[in-house]
Amino acid sequence: MTQMYNKKVMEHFSNPRNVGEIENASGTGQVGSAACGDIMKIDIKVEDNIIVDVKFKTFGCGAAVASSSIATEMIIGKSVEEALKFTNKDLLKEIGGLPNEKIHCSILAEEALQEAINNYKSKIK
């Protein structure tokens, strides 16, 4: 049986925003594994404590790509502290939910972002 995604998930899967990499990124986070089938990499660019750019590369299902795309849109323009508070629940609310078996994709987006911010913070100490 095929799983149906809502329109917003399909839109972000079909036309993902902020795909790519940032040269000399302020921070990079990569989570997931080829074994589970989803790998998510997020690069952030921080200027004056504000996340001014975010790019992602995701290998995975439609929900993983859509989660990455929406997460990047949600955190551009936020302060590092605000972005640290971002959770998969924020993403699920914004995206209009995911099927239960795909919720891990929203968690991967949260973890990749947190890892990118932690990577950035480790460089500025």
Describe this structure in words.
The chain is of the alpha+beta class. The protein has a single domain, classed as Sufe protein. Chain: A (Alpha-Beta Complex). 46% of the residues lie in helices and 22% in strands. The protein has five helices and three strands. It has helices at residues 7-14, 62-75, 80-84, 88-95, 103-124, and strands at 27-33, 38-47, 50-59. A three-stranded antiparallel β-sheet has the order 1-2-3. A hairpin with a 2-residue loop joins strand 2 (38-47) and strand 3 (50-59). Helix 1 packs across helix 2 and helix 4 crosses helix 5 (103-124). The mean pLDDT is 94.
Topology:
Layout: H1 7-14, E1 27-33, E2 38-47, E3 50-59, H2 62-75, H3 80-84, H4 88-95, H5 103-124
Antiparallel strand pairs: 1-2, 2-3
Helix pairs in contact: 1-2, 2-4, 2-5, 4-5
Structural class: alpha+beta
The main β sheet shows up as: 3 strands, antiparallel
Determine the mean pLDDT.
Answer: 94
The CATH topology corresponds to Sufe protein. Chain: A
Indicate the proportion of strand residues: 15-25%
Architecture in CATH? Alpha-Beta Complex
- The CATH class name reads Alpha Beta
Distance between the termini: 50 Å
The structural domain count equals: 1
Give the strand order, joined by hyphens, for the main sheet. Answer: 1-2-3
Strand and helix order: HEEEHHHH
Estimated helix fraction: 40-55%
Total beta-strand segments: 3
CA radius of gyration: 14 Å
Summarize this structure as a short list of keywords or feature phrases.
3 strands, Sufe protein. Chain: A, 125 residues
Summarize the structure.
By secondary structure, this protein is of the alpha+beta class. Helices cover 46% and strands 22% of the residues.
